[in-house]
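ARCHIVE CARD
Drawer: 12
Card no.: 0347
Subject: one protein chain, sequence and derived structure
Cross-reference: see card 0346
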Amino acid sequence: MDFGISGKKAVVLASSRGLGAGIAEALAKEGAHVLLCGRTPDRLQANCKAINETTPGKADFVVADLSDGNFVETLLAAAEEKLGGIDILVNNCGGPTPGGVAEMSPEKLTAFFNSMVLPVITLTNRVVPKMKEKGWGRILTVASGGVVEPIPNLALSNTLRSALVGWNKTLSTEVAASGITANMLLPGRIHTDRIDELDDANATRSGKSLEEVRKASLASIPAGRLGRVEEFASVAAFLCSKQASYVTGGMIRCDGGATRTV
């Protein structure tokens, strides 16, 4: 299926590795011109090189940190210079440190709000007006299954990512008539470095071996395995496609059936 986004200009946040890198590649495979963003220039450069050598799309990158107060201006300037605009915005960010509710200090809440919520909303608000002028746009926000079934020992993530749920739904109703969709994509246990880090943290906290933690994790997934980045990225690419024009305001799960809510 041709997703109809060849030549579209896409920005993917936090795309130096993991889910963000996978989404950038998936969009480039559909012919999009993608701007990758992250804190690690070597990884970004390597990702762009691979995309430019193996896909019909094109990739550039900008080094920018979501926790930096100048992040939005830096990103927008790079998007204008390298892309000439933004048709597709993929909001993505790394997760906060593990821990329970009692560990959610005001300092931690503020710091992670400023890197996970504030820049996403601020950047999107800056991008939407030009999408309205064009009469077309795709906004996709990557969150977590924890927004519908809170994940133990990830209190900060459950709280802050959930703040984006109400925002996304409200946004979707305000921009739908302008040809813009706004959706959230909720990963389950997709095999990335982040999953390995969380497994290590859970093993340390529980006193169990890493092997025991991973075995229990797989047992909780009806599909019986971890997801692959490319599987998740393919769903993301569809939600950014021309064909997904009537899908908006939704929270789409990609979790192998792990989320137990209806």
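Annotation on reverse: The chain has two domains: 9-190+228-254, 191-226. The chain has nine helices and seven strands.
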